[in-house]
Design goal:
The complex is a heterodimer of chains A (140) and B (444).
Chain A lengths: L1 E10 L4 H11 L4 E8 L3 E8 L2 H10 L4 E12 L4 H11 L4 E8 L5 E8 L2 H10 L11
Chain B lengths: L18 H4 L3 H22 L1 H9 L21 H6 L15 E4 L9 E4 L1 H17 L7 E4 L8 H12 L2 E3 L6 H10 L4 E4 L1 H13 L10 E5 L5 H11 L2 E7 L6 E6 L6 E3 L4 E6 L13 E7 L10 E7 L1 E2 L11 E2 L4 E2 L4 E3 L2 E3 L1 H10 L6 E8 L2 E9 L9 H19 L4 E5 L6 E2 L2 E2 L2 E3 L4
The chains are: A alpha+beta (140), B alpha/beta (444).
Chain lengths: 140, 444
């Protein structure tokens, strides 16, 4: 399944992370997954929330530079080898992964892995055709 | 053939390159300046259309200038005048009589090209020779020139001066510190010519690499950027030398327009060639000696590009206080600032408007801040730019590619590389609705 990930530009300085999360939490937005890409100079916060469009509008109103990016979320068993099988499938089909992160699902024994690829629709189709469940009911 | 300057170390006498002009009495100097100015005004009126027009507009004829006391009647020349007339508007002789072009470090839109006849080169070289002799240079010295060679006047000027003094000249040009130190030690350089920040850097490198004990330098002639007395003492200590200031600008000739002597209390102006005035930058009124104001030069002897009353936008003061070196040439004090927003960073002229142009052309908002500092005597130069929705990406790689492209565009425009820092939107300080563009933390 394809999800809308939110990406936010932050400077590397104290308070930036807590400002973003506080503003969204106050609006009742629930974080499902969160990751930070950082360089020496700046960071990009990437996260999955239950209401991405609402979150984006709110962030922009508060003056943040933010965007929505379609990413592929794949459900997998929380056991050795699950991730390797998915990555091999993508690699065998020449799908280049720009970045990825994983999180544990509420459902017992399950995890999700999120991929950023150039063509998320094609990648989702490939994964589904190979029997991976990309449909995840993590977003309302 | 010029005779050069012979070492008088054994007799303890001070050496001058052109004793007659450098030690001339005030009356003789005024007479010489007057005679030269009258000739120059006639030459310029006959050959430079913008000057003829300016003088006609002011109701002046060449005959109205009878001596140096009439100089104030003439209109000023500004950098904008030169820009409008680029490239040949202020040329006073046919190109067939010119032998050289040099150019300012200011870039697109602000560039000034200056033309020289052989006579103009010779007089410029002689001014640099005066500077080298004032720093103790003789035919027994090895003059190590680490100013850039090329369109920049630093390298060619000191190179020519060193030849006239009769010193052995090392045309090193700038950069490649390892090679600089190797030549300096192997060939026993005695006088170093470069920017003060590069001198400080060479000093540090010489200590770091352990070659400091092999260095035979006795003096340095440092210019093209403003530097403090504290920085002078640090360089002197680090390299074990005496450090002399030198001033000049391409529009007037190049380095050597004024130079420091052993007293180190200001720079003697080669006023037999370049007549200095200090004016009130707001009204244009000529100010008396010891008053702080904008420095203005009139070229008395140059043939190809003879500017009259050129406003340098540099702020300083003039003094005729007696100098222990014996020179009677008027002295200008260390530079005290600028009347415009031009920044001198690592010896390169930078206008904030150039940075603004690059940002707009590269798709960034024109909301930026320039942060200057001096760390270990080297200028640090950071440009902070606000991130926008258009420039943002969820991928670090994409943002960094755009950052690199911006850096390349800035380098190409400015000639030096700043550090680019991407800032959060609306994070750049504004005061009274107007952004503070430059934060200069350098102590000068």
């Amino acid at each position: 399944m394809i999800l809308d990930q939110i990406s936010v530009f932050v400077e590397n300085k104290p308070g930036a992370l807590s400002d973003v999360t506080a503003q969204l939490s106050e609006a009742g937005i629930d974080f499902k997954a969160f990751t930070v890409a950082d360089t020496a100079e700046f960071g990009i916060l990437r996260f999955i929330v239950d209401a991405p469009k609402k979150a984006l509008t709110l962030l922009k109103l508060n003056g943040w530079v933010a965007s929505l990016t379609p990413v592929v979320a794949v459900k997998m068993n929380d056991e050795p080898g699950s991730l390797a099988r998915i990555l091999k499938l993508l690699s065998d089909n020449s799908v280049q992964v720009e970045y990825m992160y994983a999180f544990v699902a509420q459902e017992e024994g399950r995890a999700y892995v999120v991929f950023r690829v150039a063509d998320p629709a094609a990648a989702a189709a490939l994964l589904e055709a190979s029997g991976f469940a990309t449909s995840a009911s993590i977003v309302r | 053939m010029p005779e050069g300057v012979r070492s008088k170390e054994r007799t303890g006498e001070l050496a001058y390159y052109q004793e007659k002009e450098e030690l001339m009495s005030r009356d003789e100097m005024t007479a010489l300046q007057s005679e030269r100015l009258v000739k120059q005004v006639a030459h310029v009126y006959a050959n430079v259309a913008p000057y003829r027009k300016k003088m006609q507009d002011a109701g002046l004829e060449p005959g109205d200038v009878k001596g140096i006391e009439d100089l104030h009647k003439l209109p000023f020349t500004t950098k904008d005048d030169l820009k409008e007339a680029y490239p040949y508007g202020y040329l006073a002789l046919p190109l067939s009589q010119c032998v050289r072009i040099q150019s300012t470090s200011g870039t697109t839109g602000r560039r000034v090209v200056a033309f020289y006849t052989q006579h103009d080169i010779d007089l410029w070289d002689s001014c640099c020779a005066r500077s080298i002799a004032a720093a103790g240079g003789t035919n027994e010295d090895v003059v190590h020139v680490s100013y850039g060679y090329g369109l920049f006047t630093g390298g060619p000027g000191l190179n020519g001066g060193s030849h006239l003094v009769g010193s052995l000249t090392l045309p090193m040009s700038s950069g490649n510190t390892e090679r600089q130190l190797q030549f300096m030690t192997d060939l026993e350089s005695t006088i170093l010519c470069c920017t003060p920040s590069y001198a400080a850097f060479l000093g540090e490198s010489a200590h770091d690499t352990g070659v400091i004990d092999k260095i035979k330098l006795k003096a340095g002639i440092f210019g093209a950027e403003a530097w403090s007395e504290e920085m002078r003492r640090d360089i002197e200590k680090s390299l074990g030398i005496k450090a002399y200031d030198i001033y000049g600008l391409t529009e007037i000739s190049g380095p050597g327009v004024s130079f420091e002597c052993s007293e180190q209390t200001g720079m003697h102006v080669c006023e037999d060639h370049f007549y200095p005035e200090i004016i009130d930058p707001a009204t244009g009124a000529v100010l008396p000696e010891e008053s702080k104001g904008e420095l203005v030069f009139t070229c008395l002897t140059k043939q190809a590009f003879p500017l009259l009353r050129y406003r340098t936008r540099d702020i300083t003061m003039l003094t005729r206080a007696q100098c222990s070196c014996g020179r009677t040439l008027v002295k200008m004090k260390r530079l005290m600032g600028r009347t415009d927003d031009m920044l001198i960073i690592r010896g390169v002229n930078v206008f904030p408007s150039q940075i603004e142009t690059v940002l707009i052309n590269s798709g960034y908002p024109a909301n930026y801040q320039i942060i200057l500092d001096r760390v270990n005597h080297t200028d640090t130069f950071e440009v902070q730019v606000e991130m926008t929705d258009e420039m943002f990406s969820d991928e670090v790689r994409v943002i960094e590619q755009k950052e690199k492209a911006l850096l390349a565009a800035l380098k190409s425009m400015l000639g030096i590389s700043p550090k680019v820092k991407l800032a959060a939107p609306r994070s750049i300080t504004r005061s009274e609705g107007k952004a503070v563009r430059v934060i200069d933390k350098r102590k000068i």
